[in-house]
Amino acid sequence: MTMAQHWPAEGIARLILEGFDDYREHFRQITDGARERFEQAEWQATQQAAAERIALYEVKVGETSARLRATYATDELLDVQLWPLVKSAYIDLIDLRLDDELSETWYNSVFCSLFSHDLISDGCMFIHTTRPSLRSHERPPQTRSYRPGGRLGAALSAILDDYRFDVAYDDRAGDLERLEAQLRESLPDWVCKDPELCIELFAAPLFRNKGAYLVGRIYTRDEQWPLVMPLLHREGRGIQADAMITDEAEVSIIFSFTRSYFMVDVAVPAEFVGFLKSILPGKHIAELYTSIGFYKHGKSEFYRALINHLASTDDRFIMAPGVRGMVMSVFTLPGFNTVFKIIKDRFAHAKTVDRNTVIEKYRLVKNVDRVGRMADTQEFADFRFPKSKFEPECLAELLEVAPSTVAIEGDVVLIRHCWTERRMTPLNIYLESASEAQVHEALYDYGLAIKQLAAANIFPGDMLLKNFGVTRHGRVVFYDYDEISYLTEVNFRVIPPPRYEEDEMSAEPWYSVAPNDVFPEEFPRFLFADMGQRRLFNQLHGDLYDAAYWKTLQAAIRSGKVIDVFPYRRQERELTEAIQ
Ligand SMILES: Nc1ncnc2c1ncn2[C@@H]1O[C@H](COP(=O)(O)OP(=O)(O)OP(=O)(O)O)[C@@H](O)[C@H]1O
Question: 468 CA distance to ligand 1 centroid (A)?
Answer without folding.
Answer: 8
